[in-house]
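Lecture notes, continued. The same structure-token format from the folding unit now serves as the input rather than the output. Read the line below as a description of shape only.
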């Protein structure tokens, strides 16, 4: 029985070693085949590029030699000075006297204005809520930690700063509410429907 197991173990070792040798030989053959194919590809690429000239590299000295127009990204050049009153604009210039048309204050305009104002107010209200929660947390930590309370018993600078931030954010929320009220007045005066404010 023991010899039978040893026999199976020996057969397995021989089979595994022959399999490893076969795989290693196959990989070495494919690697050498791949190396030759890469070398051949490099030679072919060099032969194809022999007749070509290298691409032109532009330097600062070459910029002045370029003919034609150059597209520049950035700010627009200043517009020409408006003509004196009573004179007609030149033939090649657009009429500078034409004012920009005012936007049409229809339903889409008013809805967009109210949406922007409400978004600003919602953002400020969220920031105010976060600041108030932060203040409450700091206040609890201040009193629960005696070392901090002893060091800052007179100044409490972090609490005071957070309280000032809260007051400033409350003022922003009030301004946002006033802006919405002003928009509602403007909508009413413009003759728009009250539903456009929603």
């Amino acid at each position: 029985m023991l010899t039978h197991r040893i026999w199976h173990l020996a057969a397995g070792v021989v089979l595994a070693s022959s399999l490893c040798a076969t795989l290693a030989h196959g990989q070495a053959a494919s690697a050498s085949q791949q190396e030759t194919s890469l070398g051949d590809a490099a030679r072919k690429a060099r032969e194809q590029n022999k007749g070509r000239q290298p691409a032109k590299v532009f330097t600062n000295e070459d910029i002045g030699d370029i003919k034609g127009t150059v597209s520049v990204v950035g700010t627009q050049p200043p517009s020409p000075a408006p003509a004196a009153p009573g004179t007609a604009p030149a033939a090649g210039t657009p009429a500078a006297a034409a004012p920009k048309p005012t936007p049409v204050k229809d339903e889409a305009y008013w809805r967009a204005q109210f949406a922007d104002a409400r978004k600003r107010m919602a953002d400020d209200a969220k920031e105010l809520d976060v600041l108030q929660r932060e203040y409450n947390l700091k206040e609890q930590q201040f009193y629960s930690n005696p070392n901090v309370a002893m060091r800052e018993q007179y100044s409490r600078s972090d609490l005071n700063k957070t309280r000032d931030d809260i007051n400033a954010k409350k003022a922003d929320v009030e301004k946002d509410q006033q802006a919405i009220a002003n928009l509602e007045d403007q909508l009413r005066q413009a003759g728009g429907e009250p539903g456009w404010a929603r």
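Point for the exam: The helical segments are 2-49, 60-63, 107-144, 146-151, 157-190.
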